[in-house]
Structure to design on (210 residues):
C-alpha cells in the first residue's frame, strides 16, 4: 500500500493530544493502522508532550490527577507495538465489531444513483457523523458543501478530485473552505470511511453544533 495523502499536521496533533471527536478519531486511527509515517509522527508528538509534562514543577495534590494514570498507561505501551492493520475484508480491525469483517458482506443503504452508505453508530452524546460510502465505478460523488471538517479514508478503489488521486490508505483532510468534485475510479469505484464534524448534509441534513 503506497500512501501519498496524509492528515494535516494539526489533525495529527489533536490525535496525539487525544482531543479529537469520536468520528474523526475513527478515521485517523484507521489511517494510522496502515501508515508508518504518521504513526512515527504521532509517537514523536507524544514524546514532546511527555517532555513538556516532565518539565513542569511537581505539585502535591490530595487526589492523584487522571493524567498520572494516563502517563503510566502510556509508559506501558511498547515503543514498537504491533501495528493493527486492515482486516482481510479491507475493514479497519477496530470497526469489524461494528460493521462486520468484510466490505463485500455488509449491508448498504441506497442514497442516490450509484451511491450507497452504511452509517456507523457513535457513542451516546457524540456529535458528528461516521459512515462508509460506496460509489460505483466512474460516478461522481454528489456535490455538497462541507459543514466543518470532513475526513475521508479510502478503503477500496480510488477517487480523483482537485487535490489528486486518493487510493487505499490515503486520507483527504478537508475543512469548510475546501471545494472539490470527486469522481470514483472508472474500473473499481470507491469505498471510503468518512467522518464529518456535523451530520452530513447528504445523509440527514446539517446538525450544526450550537
Ligand atoms: Zn499518514
Amino acid at each position: 500500500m503506497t500512501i501519498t495523502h496524509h492528515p494535516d499536521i494539526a489533525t495529527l496533533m489533536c490525535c496525539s493530544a487525544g482531543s479529537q471527536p469520536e468520528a474523526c478519531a475513527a478515521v485517523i486511527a484507521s489511517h494510522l493502522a496502515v501508515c508508518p509515517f504518521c504513526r512515527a509522527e504521532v509517537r514523536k508528538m507524544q514524546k514532546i508532550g511527555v517532555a513538556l509534562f516532565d518539565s513542569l514543577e511537581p505539585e502535591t495534590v490530595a487526589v492523584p490527577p487522571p493524567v498520572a494514570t494516563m502517563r503510566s498507561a502510556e509508559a506501558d505501551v511498547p515503543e514498537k507495538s504491533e501495528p493493527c492493520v486492515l482486516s482481510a475484508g479491507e475493514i479497519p480491525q477496530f470497526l469489524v465489531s461494528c460493521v462486520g469483517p468484510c466490505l463485500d458482506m455488509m449491508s448498504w443503504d441506497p442514497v442516490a444513483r450509484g451511491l450507497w452508505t452504511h452509517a456507523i453508530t457513535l457513542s451516546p452524546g457524540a456529535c458528528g457523523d461516521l459512515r462508509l460510502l460506496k460509489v460505483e465505478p466512474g460516478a461522481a460523488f454528489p456535490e455538497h458543501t462541507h459543514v466543518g471538517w470532513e475526513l475521508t479514508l479510502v478503503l477500496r478503489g480510488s477517487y480523483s478530485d482537485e487535490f489528486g488521486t486518493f487510493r487505499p490508505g490515503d486520507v483527504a483532510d478537508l475543512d469548510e473552505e475546501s471545494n472539490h468534485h470527486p469522481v470514483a475510479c472508472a474500473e473499481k469505484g470507491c469505498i471510503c470511511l468518512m467522518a464529518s464534524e456535523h451530520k452530513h448534509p447528504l445523509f440527514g441534513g446539517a446538525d450544526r453544533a450550537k
